[in-house]
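Lab notebook, design round three. We kept the backbone fixed and only want residue identities now. Task for the bench partner: fill in a sequence for the structure below.
Input structure tokens:
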């Protein structure tokens, strides 16, 4: 069971969204004059987020606050909401900042505790997840923050939770991972909102865990990634992956009428989903039908994996068809790895055009961004992924911005 809980502050413990623009623009005098706009999040389960540190400390656990905000601000917020802590690490305490692990490492140093996967870092965005990974802690992401589901699913935490009270069941935290990762790893498993990785809303897309490419150091210790790769060539992992799919479907609060796999290429003879879905059907409602031939591929696409998202969207258009009229049926579309989503979106379009009532997507795994640490060539500090708030384009920005360095590089 974990006994160290390190928290991000803004949009994790408190709702400071009203000051988000001022904080991003480093307008700290204006922030100081508007601290009254910071709010508590509503209670989720039996606790509100800002109440977690006190409850955990009362249970004998070490609690730290690790924030990229200045110390005066963090101290004022913690006092305003009566949030206790054992250690506070703020912006001025380290030279490098999240997603660099230095602030988390400093908190552990002050607590006199070595880094361990038994310790948790809880935050609301991908920088928190990456910092926890580099520091050697398990990451927990909260759903009530502003980061989009798609962005968080592409740099997914070890645990994704929607209710603050989930953290209070310390005996179950070890089993709160994703169902696909838990079952293929033979880990304990306790179902909750985050047992299935929520990836997108239009259409609704779920994944049973994370897929790490061979260039990611996490690939070597991921049985789910290995099972997905194996499925492309043989059925040795079909039974366990089928159990993952079947048990996930049984957890839904939405019951499909039919499950259809993304179709194989015309040149492929083996349907990699056949045995998997036979195994899956042992674990969900027998009224759900499996239709292997619900979709068919009518166009081969060469070099698809090497294309970017725009190229894929153009190439995949009209590549699929169906011989069925779906008459309002609710359909679950099954794929192995969800990457850009262009393939599944085109499949969904074809199904909807032929009468499907609602189509949702389930992938065995969601492709993950490789956690790379980039050093600023101008000053040597770590760089972080930032976003242009006008164009929404991603770029690398020095973590020393704006006081020490304004160097940027293309993402």
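Proposed sequence:
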């Amino acid at each position: 069971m974990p006994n160290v809980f390190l928290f991000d502050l803004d949009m994790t413990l408190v709702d400071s969204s009203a000051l988000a623009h001022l904080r991003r623009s480093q307008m700290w005098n204006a922030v100081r004059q508007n601290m009254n706009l910071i709010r508590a999040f509503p209670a989720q389960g039996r606790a509100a987020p800002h109440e977690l540190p006190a409850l955990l400390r009362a249970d004998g656990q070490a609690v730290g606050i690790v924030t990229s905000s200045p110390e005066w601000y963090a101290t004022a917020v913690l006092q305003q909401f009566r949030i206790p802590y054992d250690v506070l690490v703020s912006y001025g305490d380290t030279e490098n900042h999240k997603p660099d692990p230095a602030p988390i490492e400093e908190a552990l140093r002050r607590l006199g505790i070595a880094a361990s996967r038994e310790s948790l870092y809880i935050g609301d965005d991908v920088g928190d997840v990456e910092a926890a990974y580099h520091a050697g802690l398990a990451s927990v992401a909260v759903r009530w923050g502003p980061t989009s589901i798609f962005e968080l699913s592409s740099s997914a935490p070890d645990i994704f939770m929607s209710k603050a009270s989930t953290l209070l069941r310390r005996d179950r935290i070890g089993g709160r991972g994703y169902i696909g990762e838990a079952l293929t790893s033979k880990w304990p498993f306790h179902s909750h909102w985050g047992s299935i990785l929520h990836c997108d809303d239009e259409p609704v897309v779920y994944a049973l865990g994370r897929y790490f490419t061979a260039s990611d150091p996490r690939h070597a210790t991921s049985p789910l990634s290995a099972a997905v790769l194996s499925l492309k060539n043989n059925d040795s992992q079909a039974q366990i992956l089928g159990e993952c799919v079947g048990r996930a479907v049984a957890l839904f609060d939405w019951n499909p009428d039919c499950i259809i796999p993304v179709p194989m290429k015309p040149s492929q003879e083996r349907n990699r989903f056949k045995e998997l879905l036979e195994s899956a059907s042992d674990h969900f409602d027998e009224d759900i039908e499996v239709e292997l031939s619900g979709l068919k591929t009518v166009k081969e696409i060469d070099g698809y994996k090497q294309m970017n998202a725009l190229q894929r969207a153009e190439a995949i258009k009209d590549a699929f068809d169906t011989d069925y009229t779906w008459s309002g049926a609710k359909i679950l579309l099954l794929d192995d790895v969800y990457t850009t989503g262009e393939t599944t979106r085109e499949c969904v379009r074809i199904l909807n055009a032929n009468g499907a009532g609602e189509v949702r997507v389930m992938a065995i795994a969601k492709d993950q961004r490789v956690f790379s640490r980039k050093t600023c060539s101008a000053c040597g500090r770590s760089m972080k992924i930032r976003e242009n708030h006008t164009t929404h384009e991603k770029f690398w920005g020095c973590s020393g911005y704006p006081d020490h360095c304004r160097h940027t590089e293309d993402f």
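Keep this in mind before ordering anything: The two ends are 38 Å apart (CA to CA).
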